[in-house]
Amino acid sequence: MMILVDTNMVVLCHYTLRDGSAMGDLIESTEGGEPLGFIHGIGMMIPAFEAHLQGKTKGDAFAFPIKAADAYGDYNTEAIELIPWGAFKLEPGVRPEDIFVPGEQVPLQDPSGESFMGTVVETNEEGVLFDLNPPLAGVDLYFSGEIVDVRPATAEELAHGHVHGVGGHRH
Asked: Which residue among 52, 107, 116, 149 is least packed, with the fewest CB closer than 10 Å?
């Protein structure tokens, strides 16, 4: 019996992600490594990605585009923010330019304790200018790959909200 990709199923897949089309620049790939593992239908993946895999089975190939608006959203020019130096707790002797390197992603936390990532744009006398857009905001995506396995998620995986073992989290 073929198990179909559906809600609460663990999906293992190898994929290649390109910018915009099958001929676009390579963004990332699992080929030659462990497959991606996720629990379908619980919000771990881009909804449009999951919609394209819905109903597929082990061994099925896939290839599809996803518009930026349906992936990580359009690029928001208002999501560029200067965070003043006083907001950072730097160890004595640590130079800010050693920590905040343009182009690097840095984990940040807002006053309510919510964690998020920011990409350093530049540093200046006032602080650090961050791009708070997701790194792939504004980018049309093109996925291709193959379903390696499909199985029901265990009760523990569902409780933890992630896959355990190959392609997933190891406790």
From this structure: 107
Q: Which DSSP symbol is given to 91?
A: P
Confirm if 140 and 68 have CB atoms less than 8 A apart. Answer: yes
Task: For the beta carbon of residue 38, count every other beta carbon within 10 angstroms.
Answer: 23
Amino acid at 78: E
Lookup: tokens for 94: 């640590």
- For residues 75-108, one letter each, b for 16 or more C-beta atoms within 10 angstroms of the residue's C-beta and e for the rest, the string is eeeeeeeebeeeeeeeeeeeeeeeebeeeeeeeb
User: Is 1.10.10.10 the CATH classification of the domain at 9-72+136-160?
Assistant: no
pLDDT in tens, the chain (171 residues): 789 999 999 999 999 999 999 999 999 999 999 999 999 999 999 999 999 999 999 999 999 999 999 999 999 999 999 999 888 887 888 877 778 999 999 998 888 888 889 999 999 989 999 999 999 999 999 999 999 999 999 999 999 988 987 656 554
C-beta atoms surrounding 163 within 10 Å: 21
CA distances from 64 to 16, 53, 86, 99, 116 (A): 11, 10, 46, 38, 29
